[in-house]
Amino acid sequence: MDKELRSAYIQLHIAVFIFGFTAILGKLISADHFTLVWHRMWLAAAGFFLIPGFIKTLRQTNVKYLFMLMGIGILVAIHWLTFYGSIKIGDSASLTLGCFGLTSTFTSILEPLIYRKKFVGLDVLLGLLALLGIAIIAYYAPSQKEGNGNIPLAIIVGVFSTFVAALFSTINSTLTNKVDTKVISFAELTGGYLFLCIILLSSFHIEAVLPVNDFKLWPLTSEPKFIQSPYADFIWIALLALVCTNVAFVMNLNAMKRVSAFTANLAINLEPVYGILLAAFIFKEHQFLNLQFYIGAGIILLSVVLHSIIKSRERNK
Q1: Does residue 211 sit in helix, strand or coil?
Q2: How far apart are CA 107 and CA 4, in angstroms?
Q3: pLDDT tens column, 75-105
Q4: Distance of CA 55 to the CA centre of its chain
Q5: Segment (H or E) for 199
């Protein structure tokens, strides 16, 4: 494996580890998921102006690509709304993360359709193998609060979120070699934010799924955790925007210059593992770390390792 490819894999897995924090922060933030995503998108977009040379790079970018990326940003906004919506609806981060086992399966179907190439049976099989691991973790993980949350609706919303994530990740992979990764993230965040503003102005409200009427321009924390302050949500949203979005997105997109969309999405199957481990460490949720968890995590790791080895050997040949 050459140096650039090794660096891409390292960046990819660091980004996935950071992504694992998003579900944790989603639980810590007391505001509704529309408020959460609205603030995350504008703050993350603004964060790119702190990077030296970003404005110059943005000005040099073809306007056609900027509009394309802003359109993709609508998918990003929908993904985040449904991701955090699933967490709030089901009152369980692990349940939503479990749905992400479908990412590689969806990608193994979407990638050949978008790139107009043949379906690869191995990709489908490894995607299903990862799905099996996620299914075991999700099925055997007990609810954090027995009797709370609409589990069936949370699963439906979570699976839809996973499909949208696979779709925009696959489309993104066609642009990472044409546009600077920071510009890609900025344009998508801006497009997603404008989309949310349109929804907000139209007052399009769907109870539980799209709680626009619950939007808070100034989100004070109703039930503070760890930071006993009514302004705790501001801190969590800032971390979510600047670290889990700006840093992780750029690293993920940099990695996608060298790895396929399927490989990237297969690695994202580790996000539930990292998320549940972090939940156990931060929230002391040791009940999730049962035998079934280790079996499921082992299956996911096996699928990622097998795919990396096979693709590496193909390149060497």
Answers
A1: coil
A2: 24
A3: 999 999 999 999 888 877 777 877 776 777 7
A4: 26
A5: helix 181-202
